[in-house]
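Hello again,

I reread your note about wanting to compare the complex against the isolated chains. To keep things tidy I'm splitting this into two emails, and this first one only covers the full assembly. Below are the input lines as submitted, including protein chains and any nucleic acid or small-molecule components. They are followed by the predicted structure of everything together. The single-chain runs will come separately.
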Amino acid sequence: MSNPAPLFSAFRQALSEAWASGAGLLLPIGFFSGTAMLVPFTLGDEAETLAKIGPGVLWLALALASLVTLERVFQADLQDGALDLWVQEEASISLIALTKTLAHWLISGAPLILMAPILGRLLGVPFEDMVPAMAAYGIGGFTFFLWGGVAAALAAGVARAGLLIALIAIPFFVPAIIFGTLSLTEGFDGASILFLSAACLFALGVAPAAMGAALRLAAE
Amino acid sequence: MWSILANPHRFMGFSKIAIPITIGLGLILSAWSLYQGLWVVPPVPAQGGDIARAMFIHVPSAWLCMGLYVGLAGASFVWFIWRHELADVAARAIAPIGAGYTALCFATGAIWGEPTWGKAWRNVILYDSRLMSVLVLLFLFIGYMALRAALDTRQKAARAGAILAMVGLINVPIIKFSVDLWKESTIHQPSSVIRFGEAAAENVGIHPVFLVPLMIGFFGQLLFVSGLIMLLMRAEIFGQQADAILARRLSEA
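Full-complex prediction:
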């Protein structure tokens, strides 16, 4: 990779696309909050129960909210021809895909971490529990976006791929969900947060290559 | 040896003879194993009595569903690197069979677990990490088939499917590890057929009265599955040939 310029432009383009449409930022936050809001209705308003299951409910909502915007991540690039230009560029398409995923996570994933304490408060989770939980939401959320990015890249050429992407991505979410939820009870002391980080690093190593291969296919 | 069969003509010749033999022999051996398992071998009270006879379906399907996923990823790898068309035809044929065996393994496991482990069956799934891993494997198979079905050209479906199968295979150990960590104490019995090191010294292996019908049953199922895969591959190749003939006729007309 000799020329970093395409990476910066891909990053800027991803951010500005999300700002321009507006919904890119609001959709996951709204979905995340809405899912968490439904929980007291379905499971009752007993404070003890909610405080106990609250962090786990937020994990589920986070995983689902990560799936909401995945459909558009690479599909827009395929339709407006940006993908064809990237394939011709000297820059590695895997790194471009990783940059896009990072930008996508900053827009659609990171705000969810900031929302988590507020929703946690709604569910009666104590604030001091939320600090390690927020770190885990950040690492786990990025892992979701990496595997979700692979699914989105594979389905880039498919119209109305939202459910297909979710179906492909869900089995890959399992380790991050398990390590993340276990880390809630263990806090920073246990091994689960380390396993979660390891799962994230593994995704960081494998997912960009898979996204690159899938995007090259989609561009043909 | 296998590279000889990479030639579709040789494969068609080979499979024409091999399919009746493998499917026939596989059915006979499986039927014998089931007969032995369901009627002949004595019930074991410690394993839940008659319900333990589910072993003769559960154990072969458990081995086969894992083996078939490895086979799917292996065929995908061969197609992705060397572009042997036959490897993609094989991957496409393996997927539904693998999904079927995964579902069979999961269902028999849950049915066997209910009376033996003394919990309602939906709890059995949640109480056992091995069954949970099998369920995740089922979703990997379903996702693979759904992706292939959604892509419009065969070439694209083959390439996207190959990427997904390979990414899936390297994730399987991590998924397995995480599910084991989630439920540290599985109530599933430890492996009693294939044992290594300490485990081999500690737990008593399976008695030959059960082991012989079980292994013959597994071998029979393996033959049956390989015959079935070849059958589906032949059907796919015939379908492609029919398309080609149709296209030629249309261009001549």
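For quick reference: DSSP finds ten helices and no strands in chain A.

B.
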